[in-house]
C-alpha cells in the first residue's frame, strides 16, 4: 500500500500583490501546488496541471535615464515545470535532453529524461510545440519540483525572442513584478455579499491535493473515502483509495490529526492533478471552522450525474424553452495554435465562435475538442427534421463506464500498434525435460510449501536468453537505443480492471523458488489493486502466458518502450519422428511467439533469441551454468 506522508503545518498566508483572488492557505509541498493570481502586476499565471504553467511574462530592463522603466514583453509561450514523477519525489536530476533548442516537438514526444528517487523516467509533451529555450542544462542535480526547466512556443518564428532569456530573468519577472509595470486597474465594484476566500482567518490546517501517482497519470478517480469528516486520523490509517491510470492506490497518514473537510466526494471521476481533495487539522475544535469552506481559484470537478430516467417512445411536444444566449463571435485577429487550427478545419468549426483559454486568449487543442456549437434560433420556415434512428429496445444492452486504467490501456496499445513496427517469430519447444525436472523439484520443496510452475521456468529461461542476446533486452529512446544490463521481466496479469504487468526484478540472478514466490505475491497484489507504483513501472522484457486457458498460440502487443514481448501458448502432446522401434515419440510441445520492434531487433537477432530460449528449456540443466 502506497504511503503518503501528511505533515500538519500552520496555514500561513502568502504575501501577494493586492487583488481579489488571493489564496492564503498553504498546500502540501508533496501533494500539490497553489494557484496564484496576481492582480495589478506585470505577470499572470494559470495552473495547467503537473509540470505546466502558461504565463505572459515581462522582463525588466535596467532603469533608464530620466527615472522611467522600459518593459519588453515576450511572445506567448509555455513554461514547462518539473512535475512530481513519483509519489515520494522531492527533487530530480535532468539526466538527458532528448530535444534541442529549436526542435519541433510532436504530441507524445520524449523531451527529457528525469532521474527521480525511484528510476529514470521519460518526460513527454502532450501538445505539439517547439522547444524555444532550455533553462536547466542536462546533468543538473537536485532540481526542485515546480522549477521551470524549459520554454516552448507554438510557432518556430517565436524561438528567436527567447535567445537571451535565462532562468534568473524568468524567476525575477514571475516572483517580483513591479507595481509600476502597468497602470493599476480600476477597483472592481464591491459585491453585495462577498464570499470569504480561504485565508488567514482559518485555523492552522493542511490542504491535501491529488498528486501524480504514476508518470503517465493526468487524472484520477476518488474510489472511496475510508474516513468521514470529524473522524480522528491516527498514524497508519487509510484515508482514501484513488484509482490511477495503473492501479488503485490507498493513501495512509503517518501523523495524527482530524479530517475537517472533504472537497471531492467519492466516486468523482477524472479529477485533475493538483485538485484539493480534503483538509486536515491538528485540533478537533478547529473542524467546525471548515464546515462552509469553499476552495477558490480551482476548476470545479463535476460529480458523476445520476443515470437519466427512461423517456417514453412518443412523448407529447413540450413548449420550447429559451436556449442560453450564444457567445458573441470574436472580432479582430484570432490567436490559435497550428494544431487547433487543423482540428477546427477538420471538424468544420468557426474559430470566431470558440473561446480560447491559452495565453492572450489563444485557442488550443483542448478548446477545439471541448467546443460545443451553439444552437441557432429557429428560422421562420424550418426544414423538416430528418427521422432519427430508432432507439434500441430497453434492456438489450448495458453501458459500462470506462475506468482510468482501461483508458490508459487503450491509449498505450493503440500507440504501440500505430508507432512500433511489429513483426512476429514463432517456434515450438519440447517441454518434456522441464516437466520432469519440475516434478522432481516440487517433490524436494514440498515441505517448504513451494510449488514451481512452468511459467517460473519460462521467466528464468527468458531472462538468461536476454543476457545471451542483449538486443532483445533494449529500449527505443528516439535518439538512442538503450541496452539494459539487468533483466527485469514484466509478467502480464489479468485483473477485473484490466491488464497490468508487475515486474520480477533481476530475474537473471534469481532462483526458481524466488521467482515463484515473487510472481505469486505480485499477482495477488495486482488482483487486489494494491500494487505500489515501482512494482509495475519499468521492466525490460515482457511475458504474456495464456497457455492455462487452452490457447495454442497468439501474438502479443509490445509494451513500449520495451522492444520485445513473448506470447506463450499451452503444451500439447504431439507425435515426433524418432529412431526407435516404433519410429516415433510422444512429446509435450509448447508454441511461443516473439513480437519484436524492428527498429531495435532485426529478424536474425530475434531468431537467435528464440534459439537460446528453446535451448534453455529443452535442456533446463544448462540454466545452472
Brief digest:
With 625 residues, the protein is an alpha+beta fold. The protein is 16% helix and 24% strand. The protein has a six-stranded antiparallel beta sheet with strand order 1-2-5-12-10-7, with no helix packed on it. A six-stranded mixed beta sheet has the order 21-30-29-28-24-27, with helices on one face.
Q: What does this protein structure show overall?
A:
- By secondary structure, the protein is of the alpha+beta class.
- Helix content is 16%, strand content 24%.
- The protein has a six-stranded antiparallel β-sheet with strand order 1-2-5-12-10-7, with no helix packed on it. The protein has a six-stranded mixed β-sheet with strand order 21-30-29-28-24-27, with helices on one face.
- The longest helix is centred in the middle third of the chain and has 16 residues.
- The two termini are 38 Å apart.
- The N terminus is likely disordered.
Number of helices: 8
Question: Major β-sheet, in short?
Answer: 6 strands, antiparallel
Low-confidence stretches: 1-72, 175-199, 309-327, 376-381
Beta-strand content bin = 15-25%
Distance between the termini: 38 Å
Strand segment count: 30
Amino acid at each position: 500500500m502506497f504511503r503518503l506522508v501528511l505533515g500538519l503545518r500552520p496555514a500561513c498566508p502568502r504575501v501577494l500583490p493586492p487583488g481579489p483572488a488571493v489564496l492564503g492557505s498553504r498546500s502540501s509541498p508533496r501533494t500539490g501546488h497553489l494557484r496564484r493570481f496576481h492582480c495589478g502586476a506585470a505577470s499572470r499565471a494559470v495552473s495547467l496541471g503537473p509540470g505546466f504553467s502558461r504565463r505572459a511574462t515581462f522582463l525588466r530592463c535596467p532603469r533608464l535615464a530620466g527615472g522611467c522603466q522600459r518593459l519588453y514583453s515576450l511572445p506567448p509561450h509555455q513554461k514547462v515545470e518539473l512535475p512530481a514523477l513519483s509519489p515520494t519525489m522531492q527533487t530530480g536530476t535532468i539526466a538527458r535532453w532528448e530535444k534541442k533548442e529549436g526542435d519541433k516537438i510532436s504530441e507524445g514526444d520524449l523531451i527529457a529524461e528525469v532521474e527521480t528517487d525511484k528510476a529514470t523516467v521519460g518526460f513527454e509533451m502532450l501538445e505539439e510545440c517547439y522547444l524555444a529555450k532550455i533553462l536547466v542544462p542536462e546533468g543538473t542535480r537536485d532540481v526542485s519540483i515546480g522549477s521551470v526547466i524549459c520554454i516552448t512556443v507554438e510557432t518556430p518564428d517565436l524561438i528567436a525572442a527567447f535567445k537571451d532569456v535565462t532562468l534568473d530573468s524568468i524567476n525575477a519577472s514571475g516572483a517580483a513584478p513591479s507595481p509600476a509595470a502597468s497602470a493599476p486597474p480600476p477597483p472592481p465594484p464591491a459585491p453585495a455579499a462577498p464570499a470569504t476566500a480561504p485565508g488567514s482567518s482559518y485555523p492552522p490546517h493542511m490542504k491535501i491535493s491529488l498528486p501524480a501517482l504514476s508518470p503517465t497519470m493526468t487524472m484520477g478517480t476518488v474510489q472511496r473515502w475510508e474516513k468521514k469528516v470529524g473522524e480522528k486520523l491516527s498514524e497508519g490509517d487509510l484515508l482514501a483509495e484513488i484509482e490511477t491510470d495503473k492501479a488503485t492506490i490507498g493513501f495512509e497518514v503517518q501523523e495524527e490529526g482530524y479530517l475537517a473537510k472533504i472537497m471531492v466526494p467519492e466516486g468523482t471521476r477524472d479529477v485533475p492533478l493538483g485538485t484539493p481533495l480534503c483538509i486536515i487539522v491538528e485540533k478537533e475544535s478547529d473542524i467546525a471552522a471548515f464546515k462552509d469552506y469553499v476552495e477558490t481559484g480551482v476548476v470545479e470537478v463535476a460529480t458523476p450525474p445520476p443515470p437519466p430516467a427512461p423517456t417514453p417512445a412518443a412523448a407529447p411536444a413540450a413548449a420550447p424553452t429559451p436556449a442560453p444566449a450564444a457567445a458573441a463571435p470574436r472580432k479582430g485577429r484570432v490567436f490559435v495554435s497550428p494544431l487547433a487550427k487543423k482540428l477546427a478545419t477538420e471538424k468544420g468549426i468557426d474559430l470566431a465562435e470558440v473561446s480560447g483559454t491559452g495565453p492572450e486568449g489563444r485557442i488550443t487543442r483542448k478548446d477545439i475538442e471541448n467546443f460545443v456549437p451553439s444552437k441557432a434560433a429557429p428560422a421562420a420556415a424550418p426544414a423538416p427534421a430528418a427521422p432519427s434512428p430508432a432507439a434500441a429496445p430497453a434492456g438489450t444492452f448495458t453501458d459500462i463506464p470506462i475506468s482510468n486504467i482501461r483508458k490508459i490501456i487503450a491509449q498505450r496499445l493503440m500507440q504501440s500498434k500505430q508507432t512500433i513496427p511489429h513483426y512476429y517469430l514463432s517456434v515450438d519447444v519440447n517441454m518434456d525435460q522441464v516437466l520432469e525436472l519440475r516434478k522432481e523439484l516440487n517433490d524436494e520443496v514440498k515441505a517448504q510449501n513451494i510449488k514451481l510452475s512452468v511459467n517460473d521456468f519460462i521467466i528464468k529461461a527468458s531472462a538468461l536468453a536476454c543476457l545471451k542476446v542483449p538486443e532483445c533486452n533494449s529500449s527505443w529512446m528516439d535518439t538512442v537505443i538503450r541496452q539494459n544490463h539487468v533483466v527485469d521481466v514484466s509478467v502480464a496479469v489479468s485483473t477485473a480492471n484490466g491488464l497490468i504487468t508487475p515486474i520480477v526484478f533481476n530475474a537473471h540472478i534469481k532462483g526458481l523458488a524466488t521467482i515463484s514466490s515473487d510472481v505469486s505475491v505480485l499477482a495477488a497484489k495486482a488482483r487486489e489493486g494494491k500494487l505500489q507504483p515501482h512494482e509495475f513501472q519499468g521492466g525490460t522484457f515482457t511475458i504474456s502466458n495464456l497457455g492455462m486457458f487452452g490457447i495454442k498460440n497468439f501474438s502479443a502487443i509490445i509494451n513500449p518502450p520495451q522492444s520485445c514481448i513473448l506470447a506463450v501458448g499451452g503444451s500439447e502432446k504431439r507425435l515426433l519422428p524418432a529412431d526407435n522401434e516404433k519410429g516415433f515419440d510422444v512429446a509435450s510441445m509448447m508454441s511461443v511467439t516473439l513480437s519484436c520492434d524492428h527498429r531495435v531487433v532485426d529478424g536474425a537477432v530475434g531468431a537467435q533469441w528464440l534459439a537460446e530460449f528453446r535451448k534453455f528449456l529443452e535442456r533446463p540443466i544448462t540454466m545452472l551454468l
